[in-house]
Structure formats: C-alpha cells, structure tokens
# Entry
Amino acid sequence: MSSRQNAVSGLVIDHDLSDANTLALPSRAERFWHARVERDVIDGLELANAQGWPITVVGGGSNLLLPPAVGGLTLRADIEGTTFRAGDGGAVHVEVGAGVGWHALVDACVEREVWGLENLALIPGLAGAAPIQNIGAYGVELADVIDWVELADRRDSRVHRLERDACGLGYRDSIFKQELADRVVITRLGLTLSTRPRPQLDYGVLRDRVATTPSAREVFEAVCAIRREKLPDPALTPNAGSFFKNPLVTEATASRLLRQAPDMPHYPQPNGQVKLAAGWLIDQCGLKGRRKGAFGVHDRQALVLVHFGGGTLDGLIAFADELVDIVHARFGVVLEREPRRVDASRG
Ligand SMILES: Cc1cc2nc3c(=O)[nH]c(=O)nc-3n(C[C@H](O)[C@H](O)[C@H](O)COP(=O)(O)OP(=O)(O)OC[C@H]3O[C@@H](n4cnc5c(N)ncnc54)[C@H](O)[C@@H]3O)c2cc1C
# Structure
C-alpha cells in the first residue's frame, strides 16, 4: 500500500484500495479520510463540502465494485464500541459503532446468549454498512431487529437519528441506497435483541443441522458451517458474495416459468410478487463454473462471481452482463446486480 499523508489532518492522498475490497479489484482513492469518531466524520464531510468533492463511503469493501481510480473523497467510519442494556421482558438494547465488524458483533451477542443475530453470522463487512442493503440470510434480515440508525448528513454536517420506519428497509434495499446515497455516513446503530430463545429455523437446511431446542451458539455454528460449505472465502478466492439479487416477478411471470420448469424454486411474497432464486436461474443455463479471463461463476454457488486475479472492473461488468443476457434469453427475467458500483467519473 502506498499513500501520502497530506497537510490536512486525517487526509491521505492516493490511497490503495486494492486490498480493501473483497473482489481484490485494483483501485486507488484520490483522497482517503479515515474517521474514528463522529467528529472526524463531520470534519471529513465539511472538508469535502468546502472543496466541492463528491464522497464515496466505504466499509469493509465486501459489497463494492471499485473502478481503478475513485475521485473526490473516500471516507471510512471506523467508529468502535458496542454496549448492551437490559430492557423489559428479556429485551436487550444494543448500540454499536459503524466500524465494528459485523461477524464480531454477532459472536459477541451469541456469547451472551442474546438472540436475534445468529442467522446473520459470517456476513463480511462492518456494522455501519448493514442497513444499506438491509443485510439478510437464512430467513432473518436486519429490519427484524433494528431500532434506529445514526448518521452524519453532508447537507448540515450534523448527526441525526433515523427511526427504523424512516429507513425504507426492503429486500436488499433502504433509503441509504436511494435518496440518501452519497449524502450520509452511518455512524451508529441501535438494535433490540432478546434473551428469550427465538430460533428462526425456517430454512430447512438449518433445522436439519441443530437440536430441537438449540442454543444461540448452536444456530450460529450451524450457519457458519453451512456458509463455509457453500461460499468461497474472499481471502482465498476474491468475491463479493451474491452478485445478483433474487428477482421479484409478477405472479403471471412465475406461473409461466413454472409451466416451463415445474421444479423452479419460488417464494410467494406478501405483496403478491414471487421471489425467484437467481442462482438457480444461472445454474439452469449451464453457467456454474464458467470462466472467462480473470472472472468466473463459482463452481459450487452460481450466484457468486469470483476474480482469479489480473482483472479490472470493466472486465467483471462485461462478464456479468453476458450472464444477465443469457438468463434473460432463456427465462425472460432480468437479473439485477447486488453490489454497489462506484462511479469512475466521480470527482
Ligand atoms: C462471501 C460474502 C458473503 C456475503 N453474504 C451476504 C449475506 O448473506 N447477506 C447479505 O445481505 N450480504 C452478504 N454479503 C454482502 C456484504 O457482506 C454486505 O452487504 C455487508 O453489509 C457489506 O459491508 P461492508 O462493510 O463490506 O460494506 P462495503 O462493501 O464497503 O459498502 C457497501 C455499501 O455500503 C455503503 N457504506 C458502507 N459503510 C457505510 C457507512 N458507514 N455509511 C454509509 N454508507 C456506508 C457503501 O457506500 C456501499 O454502498 C456477502 C459478501 C461476501 C463477500
């Protein structure tokens, strides 16, 4: 990593981000700001405002597609600290800084036999990024446990608290991906968990792996084991987890596809839409294990694209677009990308 410390405190010029994104895409930030407390975040935002720089917020880089050069100011909020406070009826109120590692937080809760996050074990990244796409796995999503999000807003350089209902949390979506994108930096989260056992074992594969009345630790270990079997470790095989969202289609589209493929996994949603499994669609097109140059479809999990080294963002996007076209031609369903692509022209 090479970078130069600028005269302005906290500002690093020409910062290497290649090992700060789990796809290991080569990338450099023109300017990088590492914030350790709320005040640092505000200072970074004020500096960007004064200079007219766009802002790119990064966390652990596990859901980011980075171009070779990121202009403007790249900012990471590494705010530490987790507190647990007992509430009524077994409730446990947890406050966590944006810079706390997500998996470490889940582990700390499980260690206290506090329920609510165990199904979300082993998701890479920092707590501050969790609301951005309302992280979810094995039938649980952040929206089930979050109370509020604190964020610093570029518009007024102040920290605000947004209650859960104002966060627009949906399937891999939130207000932070939409109206507030590149305007706010999440600094802290508030969650309500519970000491009362509430195992969520609706994913059959999980139920089969634990006792009838499991401890939070047992569920956590089962989730970790299943994930390790299915997903490549980004430290060994660079990837960004699921590259595509599971598509939501109309009931009519789902019925049409089910006539074509009666065994197609499909999950009716409360709003009448039907969720399909993007990995299954890709797999059906015979694309599992396909490789082209520096990129490929993982051979055990068709939803994950892997980087074998030497590639760049453009190559990855071209490879992903080909997959989208093939799936569209076969099923008439358009796959949408899950990781966020940072715009190369910023700054
Ligand atoms: C192997 C693997 C498995 C995965 N499994 C899952 C899974 O099961 N479920 C799931 O939902 N996701 C999964 N992911 C995706 C990813 O781990 C999550 O989206 C995670 O929350 C991203 O955290 P991060 O800190 O790495 O964020 P980054 O990738 O650095 O950033 C992601 C987005 O959040 C924004 N952001 C980050 N921090 C902040 C902040 N403090 N304030 C404002 N904006 C911010 C960024 O601008 C960007 O838009 C997986 C990824 C990998 C590599």
